[in-house]
Amino acid sequence: MAQPKQTQPAAADPENVHFTHTEGTLFNADGAVSAGQARKFAPKIRAIRKLLGPRPDAGFLDVGVGYGVFLHMLEKHGYRRIAGMDPFPKSLEIARQHTSADLKLGRIEDERWPFRPGEFDVISSFDVVEHLHEPAVFLRRCREYLAPDGLVVLSTPNRSVFYEMRRIPLIGYPDRNPTHINVHRPRYWLRLAREEGYEVVAKWYGEVMAHIRYLPQFVEVVSNYLDVDLEKAWFLRGLQQSLCLVLRRA
Length: 250
Description:
Elements: H1 23-26, H2 35-52, E1 60-63, H3 69-76, E2 82-86, H4 89-95, E3 102-105, E4 120-126, H5 136-145, E5 146-157, H6 161-164, H7 186-195, E6 198-208, H8 215-226, E7 240-249
Parallel strand pairs: 1-2, 1-4, 2-3, 4-5
Antiparallel strand pairs: 5-7, 6-7
């Protein structure tokens, strides 16, 4: 007799107003990362591995862990010295079900993070800086906790014409997250990185605009037909909803 199909519990942190996912949208019933999340984070891990080289001993800190997807994937790639920080206790509790990383409570704006200065080779933060009243604070804090020649890896919404189209009824899905207070065009983030003493060592755009109805499906069909790599097609960058940067202290 066939067993009933298991479903991932839709656990969520009601206090974490920045994060709109549930556990069930990020992980499959068997605990593996969902296909969509795997596609989202795979380019980040490829970029890190390319720049770091064979460094299984590298130290990672993920700031704003959500429910632990990126840390889970780092473990699957063989990294063991990994840590995370988040200001929401319930989010950390959910994340602990999916990663053995050293997870600690803390806010980006805190004068001191709960880790040793210079401890990390990579500090990551995905879809977080746009929630900050002063995004520069994140880059300033990273300087203290990065090892020499360490990397900052971040992503944030790409405010293109297509991003603005999400406000149009019947065309886009409106942004109902009131904490998206610092969504900017790419040049803002590039300038901010330079002002805070970083050089940009890698930049790309990802995640076809899921905010526009039917657009992701159309672009996928056309790109498959033309055999176009969406990550490398510069003429499609306006259709990508995410700006991804890898920074190193200048």
